[in-house]
Amino acid sequence: MTHWIKQTIIVFIYVWRIESQDSVEQKTRVQTAYEGGTVIINCTYQTSYTPTLFWYQQKVNKVPKYMLNRVGKTGDEDKEFKDRFNAFIDTSSKSFPLTIKSLSVSDSAVYYCVLRPTVTETHSTLTQEPSSFSHPYEKEVYSSVLLVYFF
User: Which of 37, 91, 101, 116 could staple 52 via S-S, CB 3.0–4.6 A?
Assistant: First the structure.
């Protein structure tokens, strides 16, 4: 492959990446709920590509902790969050709501919705598949604070 073709491909990928309009939004900044109940924390996203979405939980004076992710109808969860925490991508409304069941006061935390776009094209130089994801702030991040009360 000649040198100018390599440069053209690199420039094309660089410009294509910057121009994408990928974003997430959590409109509700603070939510309250009662112990034992269920809460849904909403998150909407915009991307032209197949989204990879994540939820993280951050408790006071702690680093964000990975909870779960979804790519289409597949994904995985951290074992700590497997039973009471769930989220599914709704492509029609472009939303990724997190549902927490059987709330406890210890669920009070900041919850982050994170978008990592996944690009799949037929041309091999434009393929970007999910790889290891170690930092919650890779693309767009919004947060919601959940306060759980007991009575």
Answer: 116
Tokens of 19: 């121009």
What distance, in Å, lies between the first and last C-alpha atoms of the chain? 69
Residue 20's SS3 state is: coil
Q: Are 147 and 108 in contact (CB under 8 A)?
A: yes
The pLDDT tens digits for 70-126 are 998 899 999 999 999 999 999 999 999 999 999 999 999 999 999 985 544 443 333
Q: Is residue 10 part of a domain?
A: no
12's tokens = 């094309």
For residues 113 and 142, the answer to whether their CB atoms sit within 8 Å is yes
As a whole number of angstroms, the distance between CA 43 and CA 138 comes to 16
Distance in angstroms (rounded) separating the CA atoms of residues 124 and 108: 44
Q: The CATH number of the domain where 87 resides is what?
A: 2.60.40.10
- Which pTM does this prediction carry? 0.71
* Residue 7 in tokens: 């440069």
Q: Is residue 1 part of a domain?
A: no
